[in-house]
Amino acid sequence: MDIFQLDYFIKVVESGGSLTLAAKKINISQSALSQLISNFEKEEGVELFYREKGRLTELTDCGQDFYAYALKITQLYNDMYEMVRRASLKKKGQLRIGIPSLILRLYFTSFFTKFIVKNNEVKIEIVEGGSKQLTSLLLKGELDLAVLIEPTFLNQDKFETFPLMSDHIGAFLNASHPLTRLKQLEWKDIEQYPVASFNQNFLSYDLIQQAMKAEKVQLEMKFTSSSWDFLMQVTKESSAIALLPTPLHYYIDDDSTMIPFKKPIPFKTSLCRPIKEDYSSLERYVKGSILTCFANRRATLSTSDESELLGI
């Protein structure tokens, strides 16, 4: 097995022998993964897994030793390339990354803090703004990378997009609001109340307008702002309902609550960059670090967390 196939083998073991689960994690077909292991066992004359009715169950003694070596080898491989990347980064310049302020707060504060401490020779400029503004800067070539809200409307022949997180827009209101008796909301439930949301510079404003049209509801957009703190404060002092991304649920106090919609508005984020013939070591390193961080984040998001956000 080459280094990548070793990683595939590790994923199978970490998935409890489930080829279906492992194939989803590494984005290859289940049949290709099964063939990889079967071919290796046949060529080397060994068995890595015990099988029951054609399914992999647990590692054989040989498989356990092979797994231990695979972990060491892949770790050494990663350490080697980390060393090469760090040596290369010392010769590179600055990278400009556009991120909406809310997304920066929700997802990137911890990431960039740790990244800068680990790579103090790297120069990164964070450009904050609404998704529409950042898209414009990306199109003008003034950003190297941008985290944007879907849909990005970027030309797929000129820009690459990499999915990061998938959330929803929910209803935030004060804890004594009459609607808190409901576990989920229909859009018609909030028609009689004033609504607060991000202003027209933000794509979420457009997403809400589209949902209103699709659900045939008329909402009074009484408060709009670029500050989610202000929008949340409005709900505490009135009967207004703030339509904001559900992850903000983890940042509110006991005076506020969040209720999901039965037909929620998707709130998806993607990492975007212009397609070029070649990318600098810094560009590749930062992009890879962000995607790895969010892949791990998605993998560790528990079912209970997802159910809580969706009101299941």
TrEMBL record:
One of its GO terms (molecular function) is DNA-binding transcription factor activity. Gene3D superfamilies: 3.40.190.290, Winged helix-like DNA-binding domain superfamily/Winged helix DNA-binding domain. The keyword Ribosomal protein does not apply. It comes from the Bacteria. PROSITE patterns: HTH_LYSR. InterPro entries: HTH-type_LysR_regulators, LysR_HTH_N, LysR_subst-bd, WH-like_DNA-bd_sf, WH_DNA-bd_sf. The keyword Ribosomal protein does not apply. Belongs to the LysR transcriptional regulatory family. This is Uncharacterized protein. It comes from Vagococcus penaei.
